[in-house]
Amino acid sequence: MDIPRYTLNDGHDLPAIGFGTAGLRGDDAVAAVTSALENGYRLLDTAVNYENEAEVGEAIRHSAVPREEIMVTSKIPGRHHAYDDAIRSTKESLERLGLDHLDLHLIHWPNPGRDLYHETWRALVDLRKEGLVRSVGVSNFTEAHLRRVIDETGVTPAVNQIELHPYWPQPEMQQVHDDLGVVTESWSPLGKRQAPFTEPPVAEAAERYGVTPGQVILRWQLQQGNLPIPKSATPSRQRENLDVFGFELSDDEMAAISGLGRPDGRLFGGDPDTHEEM
Ligand SMILES: NC(=O)c1ccc[n+]([C@@H]2O[C@H](COP(=O)([O-])OP(=O)(O)OC[C@H]3O[C@@H](n4cnc5c(N)ncnc54)[C@H](OP(=O)(O)O)[C@@H]3O)[C@@H](O)[C@H]2O)c1
Fold first, then answer.
1. Is 205 a domain residue?
2. CA-CA distance, 24 to 31, in Å (whole number)?
């Protein structure tokens, strides 16, 4: 399957859809990532805190897909934010993954209460210079967090991975990203356990195009220029989630799905200004 790609502000590119791995552990993680690669995924999303980097690495090593075709993302956790800790954290991630470089490395949460994310960002910029990381980005950053790291280093994150699904569509952050040249990567892109599969704008579009509600939501993501990273342990759903390039939502359908957004739409209240995740 030929997945379109997004060009990043550093000249590299990424597939327009990736594979999320949060919650997958042990043999289940190896099996799910192995089948995701067989099914055509070429962007994998892991993190120190998912405790599955070794399993993701194992699946990559045993896959018939050449390493250079697979874009591997990991994330630095809050407890590793000081400069030296961030460097060490990244080297440990590479060791667990069994890789010589990450294709994308992110700061998992800004943890502004610790006020160290700008140090972490400087470490990422240096790791990129060393070649241990190809592209550098962030996750759960607000506009203020983004502007601070850009002002301090002159380097704009390639990606900001944020919570984004129909109940929490974040148009303001999409605009900030467009202004700054940052790709919006959507986490919990389907809405996880609160997926709005039966909401009329989603269910009716699915009926109209003969697709599933999940495909409608992923199509809604892509038509906004977002990069969704759906997770599925189910091979048939993995395939379904990539098969979203054969239909197009109208402007009205797009607006109706965005209209599902609501002030309490966050999945667990993860406000980046206050949420601490170590
Ligand atoms: N940066 C961050 O702070 C952050 C936070 C949360 C998540 N993430 C990343 O984002 C990834 C995706 O988010 P997520 O896993 O929370 O949520 P999600 O991808 O929105 O939803 C995953 C859930 O939806 C089910 N599912 C998948 N495809 C489906 C389909 N076509 N139809 C029906 N159900 C379907 C999966 O079930 P089965 O597995 O049983 O098929 C799973 O229970 C994570 O894995 C992680 O990599 C990042």
1. yes
2. 9
